[in-house]
């Protein structure tokens, strides 16, 4: 089963029987509302990312799931049990913080085994579990080191092992990769995904990095100003954004104002553009239209526009072009090979495919 | 957790708030407890002698501040912003006066410039070290380490990138000093000014020993209470003494609020490059200061070994046979050591746990608000004022806690409260440096909070905890002002014995006992250095 298909299957399962259910959760800090009416269900074994700009409420939401913060309104259920008012110590989760919060005075092994105590964990069993966990995260030789003596990526893995030690039903990750440098981050990202799939632990991760969210998650919840703007698989979020915020926040796009008119768009200069997404909108409604760089096509055609090349950004495998199509600011992509010979100021013909234009009513 | 805070609140109420309230009330009461309004204040304002001592306190305090601050700044600049040799040694020498009772420099001055002093001939014939001159000089030495510590902390944290930026913009050295160095140290300067002035105005030991006939507020309180048994007038003078301290306290808080964080997490620590034109003069100044500080201790030490100054200069240990001079003999040193040890043993866990509860876990509310304020307030209460408040509160016939009056318990309670604030701030700083998510991680792993506190918070904070313990011990060993009202028969601290022996004309014995106190505190301080070097070796990053 290929990855996209599997994701879709998981997505359908998720709506059937959520393991974690967040219902109408809101959180006020004085006059400031950090969360409003958040409804999310997470299926057993699913990997959900909370994605949004800083201050959107994603960390607050994660903290209410962990019991570190109490919601002002709404309820949270885990495995069918109401947990809204339970303190963290009576819930069933493991957590990895952005800082990792490793105990600096304890060895790696003692950190990982920190929660393995009491009757259920006699010394020998706890030690065996620690060894098993360190092997799981690929650090079997570092057991006796202290956190200050290992690298950032290794610290992150120790924090993950510690969070998984008690076999929690729910794994919470608060920007776990953002403190790492780019190469380690990419590497750990794929490791994290493989590990989560292997263990099948239900996971909620907070991130502001959309690439991270799209590549890791089964589903992504895009948040803005305390609201969930859209929940869906990475493809749904990218290809069919539900509103202008998601369209502009996720992926790159150029946008311009227009009004709906006879199944298409009426632009400021009086020009018309066919757009399928505008067909259902009443005539004259002010809208904002978005088009992704990779969707802008080159070449003469019935609806093609003349565009002037304003700038070229070399990105390796592709070049991103800044275009000005009679007042429309557009971005497009072209291979460096195809670009050969074009210079700033050159005139190109571009087409905005009507099925690719994303159109949203203003203030929607 | 609420219970712990409630206990702390109760302790601070009994040990600080209620005694101060009784002191305030007493200022409005006649000899038989009847309400007489502002009568005593009117008497105070119309007694020229009393007003003169207020003025005396004010100007000697201001003069001390004006002298100490530039010297301490230069010294701190030398040990933080230059490459002069022996900076670590200078740092150690700088601390010496803090380890000794404030009386020690005063006693040394008597040996040097007193009526029989070595250098008496250098003073004008009609001049005398007894009086404002001696007070100011002794207080300069006594307050110097406080200013130097604050300023070396303020100057010690500098962002090298700012200096590099200024240099690339071709700013002159003087301009860099004005635009980069001084603004970063501004808060330190305000803070040092306030601390030096408050210490100078509220200190009791120095004017007692070297003040002669020159009256100041601190000796007035003592005279009213011990000499004339006039508690109400004592209370009025104590309230007057509280004013400059309160003013300083709020001035410092105000300055602190205006201080923005000057060092960000990404800062690169500044290290001075060697430059002879700067380092040589600084070295000379630092050497001179160190010579004065060491000379003061050396003088007291030497004086204590002399049989009968200045007539028989042979050396002897007989001045250390304290039983000849004071009925308690070496017993008062035992009392002081026990008092210091109890203050550290009780105060350290109390301060640290309360700071932890306030920082990690207390829901905002009336109780935590009260404890927060009460933890900071002792800084604004001079020792004499607190001591007098304790007499009035605990000696009151209706007080159920009255039985502790005159015992070791009241001395320890007084010391814990008197030195609470600095210890509290040290604990708060240490706790704030810990990752705020430690408790959350512990809770998610279903480990009880107290266990995470004992296994993680305390071990990581051990250097700060040790700091607090030594601070409490050293201050309890050296304090005079608060305990002078509170000791009973058999519980006389050594620092008070020093005052009494000096009063009785036994200067050599007083110096000897001050030296023993210094030897004990210095030993403890050195032991602390040794222990903190070995603490957490292994897990602490180098």
CATH superfamily of the domain at 56-217 and 237-315 in chain B: MetI-like
Bulk shape of chain A = elongated
- Strand proportion of chain A, as a percent range, falls in 25-35%
Chains forming the largest contact: A-B, 30 and 21 residues
Number of strands of chain B: 2
Return the average pLDDT of chain A rounded to an integer: 89
In DSSP terms (H or I, runs of 4 or more residues), the helix count of chain A works out at 10
Order of helices and strands of chain B: HHHHHHHHHHHHHEEHHHHHHHHH
Biggest sheet of chain B, in brief?
2 strands, antiparallel
Strand order of the largest sheet of chain B: 1-2
Mean pLDDT of chain B: 88
The Cα radius of gyration of chain B reads 24 Å
Rg of chain A, please?
24 Å
Strand content of chain B: under 5%
Total strand segments of chain A: 20
The ordered string of helix (H) and strand (E) elements of chain A is HEEEHEEEHHHEHEHEEHHEEEEEEEEHEE
Uncertain runs of chain B are none
Describe what this molecule looks like in 3D.
The complex is a heterodimer of chains A (364) and B (542). By secondary structure, chain A is of the alpha+beta class. Chain A has ten helices and 20 strands. Chain A has helices spanning 3-16, 58-66, 108-112, 123-136, 152-164, 182-199, 210-216, 234-239, 244-249, 336-339; strands at 18-29, 32-43, 47-51, 73-78, 81-82, 94-96, 170-174, 202-207, 219-224, 227-232, 254-261, 264-266, 272-274, 286-291, 297-298, 305-314, 319-325, 328-334, 347-351, 358-361. In chain A, the strands form four sheets. A six-stranded mixed β-sheet of chain A has the order 6-7-8-3-9-10, sandwiched between helices. A five-stranded antiparallel β-sheet of chain A has the order 13-12-11-14-20. A five-stranded antiparallel β-sheet of chain A has the order 15-19-16-17-18. In chain A, α4 crosses α5. Chain B is mainly α and 542 residues long. Chain B has a domain at 56-217 and 237-315: Orthogonal Bundle (MetI-like fold), CATH 1.10.3720.10. Chain B contains 22 helices and two strands. Chain B has a two-stranded antiparallel ribbon. In chain B, a hairpin with a 3-residue loop joins β1 (306-308) and β2. In chain B, α12 (231-258) crosses α16. The longest helix of chain B has 34 residues, at 48-81. Chain B is globular and about 60 Å long. The relative contact order of chain B is 0.13. Chains A and B meet through loops of A and α19 and α20 of B.
